[in-house]
Design brief:
The protein contains twelve helices and 23 strands. With 398 residues, the chain is of the alpha/beta class. The strands form six sheets. A seven-stranded mixed β-sheet has the order 1-2-7-8-9-10-11. A five-stranded mixed β-sheet has the order 12-13-14-15-16, with no helix packed on it.
């Protein structure tokens, strides 16, 4: 894409990444891709807000140079030090050594640790401003959204909030950078939720603090580091973050996420009738085959639904290993306070349900019931499985 003028003198100069398969080496973006949004404020003094990942350095520098001579850049604002935001920094400084880097005190330390940079660093604190001429930048500290050094930059003249990772999403920008009517906004909201649960969710308390700070800030446009720029309805993302951060401590929607794994189809056969029982009760259900579905897609459903149904066979007296890995990730992402049940097949001895009791305790999940069966489920066991699902669904609706 070519640079896009957001408002007079302020430009999007980001790039789309359709190459990376795993964001942060963990989260699947092989289908969706991601954008790295960088911004140029061109004025009496010129500032770049956020940078780009190193693998796209050539494309990024070319885009930046199409708008400004690199020697004319006065400031680079580093809202966040993660290398998908700063990977091009050393090459940029080679071409433009006059640039003054702007960030928090912790950013100053990280610049030395990551890149050996100690010169031309301007440390800013909450409420500090830099006047560029017609435009003024004000800095808002937002630690642990999602690293300790993160901040946001408010361009006061146009009321544009460069919000860093907050309010961002997976997904490349396809033909437009804005929340235009032509864009599938629901898809980007889904990708924003996936980004939130994968990256931000364990910092829901800092999210609440940031939202409190922003409550009195006049924001006309939200320009994050990833995903759409929200100018038609910036309040949509603020409202969603308000809702999502509350899910860390408040009950989720009365839906059920069903996770299953199977070795020879026996647990899957039971899963089908358990799912029938749940839907019989009119409860919304999402089903994930954890042997095929990446955990990055599973976490949003776990986070936003009240009930979790686990279908997993016993493997060597233990819970099926890939299921345990998914639940360990849920614990690391603080997906707590759910109601859960488990079912599954065993060959000669059980054990999966006993291991799940231990995991549920760590997850602060209330374990309601379990259903195990030997080998292939009989017709009578399948009927019991359907009832098992229905009983669980009724408890979720209570």
């Amino acid at each position: 894409m070519l640079p896009v003028e957001i408002t007079p003198g302020i430009f999007w100069i980001g790039v789309n990444d359709r190459i990376t398969n795993l964001f942060e080496g963990l989260w699947d973006i092989s289908r969706e891709g991601i954008s790295y949004n960088s911004y140029l404020i061109r004025d009496e003094k010129n500032a770049v807000v956020d940078l780009n990942k190193a693998i796209l350095t050539g494309e990024y520098i070319t885009r930046l140079q199409s708008l400004i001579d690199l020697k004319e850049i006065d400031y680079v604002v580093i809202n966040h030090m993660e290398p998908d935001h700063t990977g091009v920094l050393q090459m940029l400084l080679t071409a433009a050594p006059q640039v003054q880097l702007v960030g928090t005190k912790k950013t100053q330390t990280m610049l030395k640790d990551f890149y050996g940079i100690t010169e031309n660093v301007l440390v800013v604190k909450e409420g500090d401003t830099i006047n560029l001429g017609r435009h003024t930048m004000r800095f808002i500290n937002t630690p642990f959204l999602h690293w300790p050094e993160t901040m946001m930059t408010l361009e006061e003249t146009e009321s544009i909030l460069f919000s860093c990772d907050a309010f961002g999403s997976y997904g490349t920008l396809n033909g437009t950078i804005f929340d235009d009517p032509s864009v599938n906004l629901d898809w980007y909201v889904d990708q924003a939720l996936r980004y939130y649960t994968n990256i931000i969710a364990i910092f829901s308390r800092p999210v609440r603090g940031a939202l409190t700070k922003l409550a009195d800030v006049p924001v006309k446009i939200i320009a994050p580091s990833h995903g759409l720029i929200w100018r038609a309805n910036p309040g949509r993302m603020v409202d969603l973050y308000d809702r999502w951060c509350k899910l860390a401590t408040e009950p989720a929607d009365p839906g059920i996420t069903l996770l299953f794994a199977t070795m020879y189809g026996n647990t899957e056969a039971m899963m089908e009738v358990v799912a029938q029982g749940i839907v019989d009760e009119g409860v919304k259900l999402k089903i994930f085959n954890i042997q095929k579905d990446h955990v990055s897609y599973i976490l949003p459903s776990l986070y936003t639904t009240r009930g979790v149904m686990i279908g997993a066979p016993t493997y060597e007296g233990m819970l099926f290993p890939t299921m345990e890995a998914v639940l360990n990730m849920a614990e690391s992402k603080h997906i707590f306070n759910k109601k859960a049940s488990i079912f599954g097949s065993y060959a000669w001895a059980g054990g999966a349900d006993r291991k799940f009791v231990e995991l549920a305790e760590k997850l602060k999940w209330e374990l309601l019931d379990s259903l195990t069966f030997n080998g292939t489920p009989s017709h009578e066991e399948l009927l019991r499985g359907r009832q098992f699902g229905a009983e669980f669904a009724r408890k979720i609706k209570e």
